[in-house]
Write a structure and sequence with these properties.
Shape: globular
Radius of gyration: 23 Å
Helix content: 40-55%
Structural class: alpha/beta
Largest sheet: 9 strands, mixed
CATH topology of the largest domain: D-Maltodextrin-Binding Protein, domain 2
């Protein structure tokens, strides 16, 4: 009898550590993320997610188009579990190629309806408002164009900058094509190109140039101005006063899960956390972005978000970037 009890005792003491080891292994199993948002922008956010979720997250950073191209090239053999893109356009492209897994309805329960993907393949994590950034020492606000289309007016020749290869630019222009139609959009691009805009690789150099006075107006996302980290700037943000103007667009960053990943449960936990109160407050406080869930106030330093002023564009239209790239090529862009 004593021998039997000892044997049972030995069995229990050897099984318990094994079980704990298995639980620990599950806990630290890493998920892999391709991030089109830079480490400087979201590295601390992923560190916060690791701590709060108790999981290891391996992030590879690059430009959104590079990450998407890589994922498409790798196909079913891709090692990635989650893609984090700076714009809805590239997420839509992945969805159209059936590279993203369907997401459960529960993930969308707290998201503003207008920020939801119709096909439920990606989740909006934060928003950036498309604005004009202008040098307030050179231009009075009252003299700025009242609509985006007015940028094709010859009066703005040599005064504007843009970034036609930037993901947000491509998504915005894709939406414009559906609002204005192909003919009007092409006429607008032709007019802006005739005004010889300065071509920049991305948004931040435009903001810097405007603040320094070498450029009068840039067409950018709002938060780059706030990231100058200066108490006083000559650069100011501006939204078009006309309600529903095609220039007033909220660009969404978001995440999707690779179809057929073996780590779908852990990946869904990451997406769920990204739209939780702590993560949404992080986007607002650290990145000056707009939240995608109700009840989170925007940063006091950013322009108030007026939904009635925004143009209503389905997210699927912002994802229609293929024809947009073809259109830009006609003008050597």
């Amino acid at each position: 009898m004593i021998l039997f009890l000892l044997a049972c005792s030995d069995t229990q003491t050897t099984e318990k550590p094994t079980q704990q080891k298995k639980e620990a292994t599950v806990k630290i199993e890493a998920i892999r993320v391709y991030s089109g948002r830079s480490e400087a922008l979201v590295g601390d956010l992923f560190a916060m997610a690791e701590k709060e979720l108790g999981m290891s997250i391996k992030v590879e950073y690059g430009k959104t188009d590079e990450m998407v191209t890589r994922m498409l090239t790798e196909g079913d053999q891709s090692p990635v579990d989650v893609i984090f893109a700076q714009d809805a356009g590239h997420l839509g492209a992945l969805s159209n190629r059936d590279m993203l897994a369907p997401l459960p309805e529960s993930l969308y329960s707290g998201i503003h309806k207008e920020y939801q993907d119709d096909n439920k393949r990606w989740l909006a994590t934060s928003g950036r408002l498309r604005v004009l950034v202008y040098n307030s020492d050179k231009i009075a606000q009252d003299d700025l164009p009242k609509s985006l289309y007015e940028l094709s007016d010859p009066k703005w020749k040599g005064r504007l900058g843009w970034a036609p290869s930037n993901g947000s630019f491509l998504s915005h222009l894709s939406g414009i094509r559906h609002v204005w139609g192909e003919e009007k959009t092409e006429q607008w691009i032709q007019g802006v190109v005739a005004n010889k805009p300065g071509v920049y690789p991305k948004n931040s150099p435009q903001v810097k140039a405007v603040d320094e006075g070498s450029l009068e107006i840039g067409w950018v996302n709002h938060y780059y101005l706030h990231k100058l980290n200066k108490e006083k700037t000559a650069a100011k943000n501006y939204t078009f006063p006309e309600k529903g103007d095609a220039g007033n667009v909220l660009m969404l960053a978001g995440m999707g899960i690779r179809k057929n990943t073996s780590k779908s449960t852990a990946s869904q936990k990451l997406l769920e956390w990204m739209v939780s109160k702590p993560a949404q407050e992080w986007f607002v406080e650290k990145n000056y972005e707009y939240p995608t869930i109700p009840g989170i106030p925007s940063h006091p330093d950013v322009l108030p978000l007026s939904p009635e002023n925004l143009v209503q564009i389905p997210q699927s239209h912002l994802a229609d970037i293929g024809p947009t790239k073809t259109l830009l090529k006609k003008f050597g862009l």
